[in-house]
Amino acid sequence: MPELPEVETIKRDLTKSLLGQAVSATIVYDQRVIRGCTAEAFAAQLKGSTVEAIDRRGKAIVISLSNRKYLVVQVMMTGQLIFSSEQAPMAMTKITFRLSNGKYLHYNDQRLFGRLQIVHDLAEIPHLQTMGPEPLGPEFETAWLADRLKKRSMPIKTLLMNPQFVAGIGNIYASEILFVSRINPRRKAGKIKPEEIKRLHRATIDVLQEAVRRRGTSMRNYRDGNGQKGGFMKRIKVYGRENEQCYRCDGPILKIVQAGRSTFFCKTCQR
DNA sequence: AGGTCGACCTGGCAGC
DNA sequence: TGCTGCCAGGTCGACC
Predict the structure, then answer these.
(1) Closest by Cα among A125, A136, A139 to A168
(2) Does pTM top 0.85 for this prediction?
(3) Cα A61 from Cα A215, distance rounded (Å)
(4) Which of A34, A109, A144, A230 is 20 to 30 A from A251 (CA-CA)?
(5) pLDDT band at A204, cuts 50/70/90?
């Protein structure tokens, strides 16, 4: 999915264009992206309700509705929320929301991994309950990180990507954060030294904040609410750069597989 | 409990 | 051109 910076960008775009709008109709083209109810029930619950707030938790978008329900959207790898003045579905549109201002919000998803769910209580979504703290929130500080790393034997990269450890970091930013931290992704989390933890903490915040400022990274599918690619690609140091030169030492960037996912790093700079 | 692996899906692309 | 195999930004359940 889009990771934290991409979902934050989507959230901000939704806040501009969706906040205060009512859903006048919902057209479901593929109900496999809807969880917990049928397409008919999904559309019925949305009809006439107004969007009162839009929040992000990890990689999930939480839309508060005037009927005291929440629409939770997890775009996963390939979901997109795109505004349009056209009702006609786009290439991979699975759901179209017609808004009270006459515009349309299309939910597109190539791989159908994304999920949209309407709940009365966010506790109905276990993923949100078990999720770790926001890395750009107040809980995420060096002492907390040091304490949580202590007992873990997993490679640090795999742990950074675990949403129950810390929210919002996925495969791209895990590699990027470790490059900036100069920590080898294969290191066991529990063996990271205090001064490295300080760097890791700083890099996590810096990388994510700059990516948010640049409206995220588009490798393949990610698009913001206007259908535009993110601007952080120019700042990517290692992800997707196998065999290219490290910007710091000119050595080759390596690609390895950890927990079934590609990791990119420089074995000279990252110890 | 912590850790790893495969399943869930489709489409784009490299290689032949 | 057309086929095959591989790859993809996440989450979850089964298993060791």
Answers:
(1) A136
(2) yes
(3) 16
(4) A230
(5) very high
Alpha-carbon dihedral sign for residues A14, A16, A17, A20: positive
Distance between CA atoms of A6 and A1, rounded to whole angstroms? Answer: 9
Judged against a pLDDT cut of 60, whether residue A1 lies above it is answered with no
Q: Which residues pair with A57 in a beta bridge?
A: A60
What's the CA A32/C1' C2 distance, rounded, in angstroms? 31
Q: What is the pLDDT of residue A128?
A: 93
Instruction: Judge whether residue A112 contacts strand B, using its CB and a 7 Å cut-off.
Output: yes
pLDDT digits (tens, 9 = 90+) for A142-181: 999 999 999 899 999 999 999 999 999 999 999 999 999 9
Q: What was the pLDDT predicted at A19? A: 97
In this prediction, residue A70 carries a pLDDT of: 97
Count of all residues that appear for chain A in the document: 271
Position A151 scores a pLDDT of 86
Q: Is the shortest CB-to-strand distance from A218 to strand C under 7 Å?
A: yes
Point out the residue nearest to B12 (C-alpha to C1').
Answer: A220
Q: Answer whether A170's CB lies under 8 Å from A161's CB.
A: yes
How many of the other CB atoms lie within 10 Å of CB of A117?
18
- Interior CA angle at A46 toward A42 and A47, to 5°? 115
Q: Which residues of A are catalytic?
A: 2-3, 59, 261
**Which of the nucleotides in strand B have any atom less than 7 Å away from a protein CB atom?**
2-11
B7 nearest neighbour residue (CA to C1'): A113
Q: Where are the alpha helices (DSSP H) in chain A?
A: 4-17, 39-46, 126-130, 142-150, 156-160, 171-181, 194-213
Provide mean pLDDT across the span A34-38: 94
